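Reading a protein record of the kind used here takes only a little practice. The record below shows the convention in full.

——
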Amino acid sequence: MKQPRGAWRAVALAVPLAALLAAAGAHARTQDQAQDDSTVGKAVAAKQANEIRNGDPARWHREDLSRQARLRILQKEIGAAYQEAKNACREGAAAERSACLKEARATYEQDMKNAPSQLDAAPEGSAQTSGQPTTR
């Protein structure tokens, strides 16, 4: 019986692949076992316990509501909305993708241009982007 020409390659690849998968499984099991505090030095564990006992630093709970900080937050939200719009365009029909991406970019640029005036017009702590939903 004649073997297909590339059959030896499949066998040669299957053996190392099985060994590699077995080694990866063994590594994962040892990683799971090493996730407790037994691997942490005594000095580090004492410092961690002290930090936990003291709680979060106060600066973590003070919100920066300066105009500059609010503008940065608004710009970040506009960027996130732009990213979502691009993702929605990519999921849509290929024929409409270019126009969808151009519209998303135009909305992004308009929102970024209007961001300072949106802050001036909105009550402190709230500003809305144009929020034009992209249809799929």
Summary: Residues 10-14 have pLDDT under 50 and may be disordered.
